[in-house]
Design goal:
The chain is 35% helix and 19% strand. By secondary structure, the protein is of the alpha/beta class. The protein folds into two domains: 120 residues, ATPase, nucleotide binding domain (Nucleotidyltransferase, domain 5), CATH 3.30.420; 154 residues, ATPase, nucleotide binding domain (Nucleotidyltransferase, domain 5, 2-Layer Sandwich), CATH 3.30.420.
């Protein structure tokens, strides 16, 4: 019981996931409290109410917020370009300060937090440079270098990197800002729209969608590997649950790099380089815990 109690908030565009715990395992296994994400005026007080109730019984030592983005770190606010219009300029920092005063707060993007969680507790343990990509309805990613989430001009936006359009793919792309960036070509939304699916049953494993998908994702992995020298690249998100998809990505990465970067991770042991999240679906909430824990120093 010597560990400090941390409040963890995984702030998603459709729901807020809340948990408290003293260790990352506590938070991974804790019952989650879920709230719908509506507007900041409605959602932020409800999130703070729940944490304040926990705080009244067992005082929190810090709070971590892993939020959807983009985030303007110079202002510590959700950026004015977020497609979630009511949230433009919303401030977790102010919301926490109003209710909890100067309680330490760790605040970052959901994907940066997930990268930190994988670095500290998951598939990236012991590695200095860890990249995390989540391939779901959209595509996002975070990068940890030397134990810190990379910030610079805003933060990395791995989902919006440019990849090579494959011959025969005439889908315009689903990204509202760029059309055929990685997210536009390879997100769950892109897969759905390219193949005209409106919900319905999952595309079968042998559908050509997945060969194309693995092609685009292998470009993304090669880009991240060559630019960042990441020591491990974690691929999470719902799309990665497609059986065999990660193996196809690994094989294409190996073939594309063609031995040029002569390390086992990129030649004979790509299965140790392109990996599933060590924390499974808990990377986000454990990431929020990791941010809170890090805010304590
Ligand atoms: Zn884009």
């Amino acid at each position: 019981m010597g560990e400090p109690m941390i409040g963890a908030i995984e702030a998603g565009g459709t729901k807020m996931v809340l948990a408290v715990g003293r260790t990352w395992e506590d938070v991974r296994d804790a019952p989650r409290h879920l709230l719908a994400t509506t507007t900041p005026d409605d959602t932020l007080p409800r999130v703070m109410d729940w944490l304040a109730e926990r705080h009244a019984t067992t005082p929190l030592s810090a709070i971590g917020v892993a939020s959807f983005g983009p985030i303007d770190f110079s202002q510590r606010r959700i950026a004015s370009t977020t497609p979630k219009i009511p949230w433009r300029g919303a401030s977790w920092v102010d919301a926490v300060a109003r209710r909890f005063g100067d309680l330490p707060l760790g605040f970052d993007t959901d994907t940066g937090a997930a990268a930190l969680a994988e670095h500290r507790y998951g598939a990236g343990q012991g590695r200095d440079v860890v990249a995390y990509l989540t391939i779901g309805t959209g595509i996002g990613g975070g990068l940890v270098v030397g134990g810190r989430i990379v910030h610079g001009l805003l933060h990395p936006e791995l989902g919006h990197m440019v990849v090579r359009r494959r011959a025969g793919d005439d889908f315009a792309g689903s990204c509202p800002s760029h059309g055929d960036c990685l997210e536009g070509l390879a997100s769950g939304e892109a897969v759905k729209r390219r193949w005209n699916r409106t919900g319905g049953p999952q595309l079968p494993e042998d559908h050509p969608a997945w060969e194309l998908e693995s092609s685009y994702l292998s470009d993304a992995v090669v880009n991240v590997a060559t630019i960042t020298a990441a020591q491990v690249i974690v691929l999470g998100g719902g799309i990665m649950a497609v059986p065999g998809l990660i193996d196809r990505v690994r094989e294409k990465v190996r073939r594309h790099l063609n031995g040029y970067l002569d390390v086992p991770e990129l030649t004979t042991a790509v299965d140790r380089y392109v990996v599933e999240p060590g924390l499974g679906l808990a990377s986000g909430i454990v990431g929020a815990f990791a941010l809170g824990r890090a805010a304590l120093g």
